[in-house]
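Side project, low priority. Logging it here so it doesn't get lost.
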Amino acid sequence: MEDGDNEPTRSVEEEHALLNGKWRLISAEANGQSEKPVVSVIELVSGQGKIDNGPGFAPLDTTYTIDPSQRPRSIDVSIKQFKTTNKGIYRLKGDRLTMVFQGDHKGERPTSFRTKDGEVLNTYERVKP
């Protein structure tokens, strides 16, 4: 099992409580290569989200569903403005949230925390109040 996937299974409600809050992007990877992270903050609140990519970009409204019983834990994020849904996985370790998504909105759910062609990995750090 991948590092971080051996944590006990929590209910969806317990998992939402841990995910709720603001998260700042600290590193990014696409197609197996490191990328310069854009100025990005996401805010998650029990199945609703907002992505703020900084000045000059309109915030994106999202909804998301999680399944903490899966290994790795699964997340599907729908971006309302684009009418797309991305299948992904996530890992939460303390104040670090790592998510991997297939980038074309049509591919299979990623299975590891290393990117392959067409996949994007983002690591976020919790923004302290």
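Brief comment: The beta strands are 21-30, 33-35, 41-45, 48-52, 60-67, 73-79, 84-93, 96-102, 119-126.
Revisit when time allows.
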